[in-house]
Design goal:
Layout: H1 2-21, H2 36-47, E1 53-56, H3 64-68, E2 86-90, E3 93-103, E4 106-114, H4 117-124
Antiparallel strand pairs: 1-2, 2-3, 3-4
């Protein structure tokens, strides 16, 4: 128990010393050396590339035997629970979750949760 107290005292002393040694440092504002017009042109070159966007309601695994027995009126049970958000995929990569809406007699999707850019980049690797 005394050894634990000595360790705690050493940590407290080290933390106190670090606080007294700390000095305020002014940081210069970062400058962007890149030409923004060049960057805009680079971005513009990819903005018109078509991508495939799809909404996934759910998935199911069935045997080929059961697949061949499907006909009009058959029901395939999906793993998703009713009311659970749909997955929004772009070129097969999950980018958001959403819910089905009807707009002018057409189905649409309202995005409820968009995956952050950092998370999307991590999934690409």
């Amino acid at each position: 128990m005394a050894n634990d107290q000595d360790t705690m005292d050493e940590w407290a002393a080290a933390m106190a010393e670090a606080e007294t040694d700390a000095k305020a440092v002014e940081l210069e504002e970062l400058q962007d050396d890149r030409d923004s017009a060049v960057d805009k042109r680079k971005l513009d070159t990819i903005l018109d590339i078509p991508v495939t966007i799809s909404m996934e309601v759910g998935r199911a695994k069935i045997s080929i035997r059961n697949l061949l027995q499907l006909n009009q009126g058959s029901v395939v049970e999906l793993e998703r629970i009713a009311g659970e958000p749909l997955d929004v995929l772009v070129n097969g990569t999950l980018i958001a979750h959403g819910e089905v809406v009807v707009v002018n007699d057409k189905f649409g999707i309202r995005l409820t949760d968009v995956i952050s850019q950092i998370e999307r980049i991590k999934k690409l690797r």
